[in-house]
Amino acid sequence: MHDLLGYAVFLAALTAGGWALAAYMQPVFTGGRSLLSPALGPVERGFYRIAGIRADQPQGWKAYALSVLLFNLLGFLLLYAILRLQGALPLNPDAIPAMAPDLAFNTAISFVTNTNWQAYSGEAQLSSLAQMAGLTVQNFLSAATGMAVGVAVIRGFTGPRGAALGNFWADMTRAVLYVLLPLSLVLGLLLIAQGVPQTLSGAAHVTTLQGAEQLIPRGPVASQVAIKQLGTNGGGFYGVNSAHPLENPTILSNMAQCLSILLIPVAFCFLFGRMAGDRRQGWAIFAAMGVMFVAGLAVIYWAETAGSGLGANMEGKEQRFGAALSALWAAATTAASNGSVNAMHDSFMPLSGLVQMINMQVGEVIFGGVGAGLYGMLLYVVLAVFLAGLMVGRTPEYLGRKIEAREVTLAMLAFLSMPLGILGGAAISASLPAALASVQEGGPHGLSEILYAYSSAVGNNGSAFAGFGAATQWQTTALGLLMLLGRYAIIVPMLAIAGALAAKTRAPVTLGTFPTHGPLFVTLLVLTVTVLGALTFFPVLALGPIAEESARLAGQSF
To answer: What average pLDDT does the structure give for the chain?
Structure first.
């Protein structure tokens, strides 16, 4: 009962926080005056002058998409160079050498695409400069990219006919300056107060009570943890991520980080309603996401607290968090495009792993990444209203704009990129000896390790079953390429759909208009996500976690 009450308080705080943040974000992205405009407005305008940006110059969808791709390419090249040269660069008190080429390739793509897949151990393989100027900077910029695209897609869906999608450079700047930086500062200070290190000193040399010498890795941890959660990035300072006592030391730090993972994605639901001029539209999308999130959390909580019949499953979990808070984190981090962990997902029960994989395989639209969750869900909205139109024999519409062949084709192309990357990549990885070397377990659990890794990469999540060997040359290269597919095969089609809808005249509401703000639409949207995901991934899930659960019930383990 205490666990369920805690979940209820968490969800209430999340809803209230997302609602308030959306009210703050609306003027930030619509050209109005926000709470921080007096202090940050001169900084924003000064940056535009230095960079030669005209914030009032709008872009069409092609120019917007090209700006996204160019900016992210430059970010990848800069981060790759830092990782390859960190041994010769300053702020390297522990003399950490350069990262290997394939691992640097994987890591750079991972952080630029907001995946933050960790095939490395941060405290052992990254200098303080690489952690700050490399990873932390990309945590801000990749998150800001997702937020900018999310706002651009909202403008295309909700703006008047002929409305531009905005200016990528201005949207990204405002996302960093007005949203990510202030929130990260507040969360970072809270984490420091809870005992998370924030220093440029190297590892601490201490003598244990037994007289042995021990090195305790330290560095700029709190600043990176704050933005990794708020930006739904997930890559931690330490190799074991938020299960490390210096990265997540207390119950308060755990709850603050878990809340931060979902805060901005929830706010984007309400921001959509506000920018559409009909807040019910935002509530409908939030309700659909919320129903699926609660259902997934319920399954994980039941599986982990019931365990194998001998009490809660505590394998791979921290005693200070227990099964309930580990279940909440697992549901949140895989529903959002986050990837941080406070427990080892490889040790979760098979049905828990099933839910986590489904969260990622549907495109991480159950709140999802910052901005990315909303535009991913709008992809399903296009498909849902198309299906509704087929059922009633009317041309499908959403917010008064007709959904026609072009929009449906683009939505299907974006949707199909997920099974193409996940199922295609996993099939190859399950058949090549070089790839199979990464698999720790045999039987269905070994298949689950592969399937989870490729779902995480294509879904731009970043979490993994801990037993999976991600640092081999095959996996770093293959997973890195699939991260690109999972990110940009969704962004470009969604910007194209937004551009197409922005060019259409909004039709007036009639008695035959299908309402998209009530329980019927919420149900249709949930069923669209569920059915499309089940039809696509059920066969392989039946061979992995479902088979493992069946074998467990029959007394067989792997």
So the answer is: 93
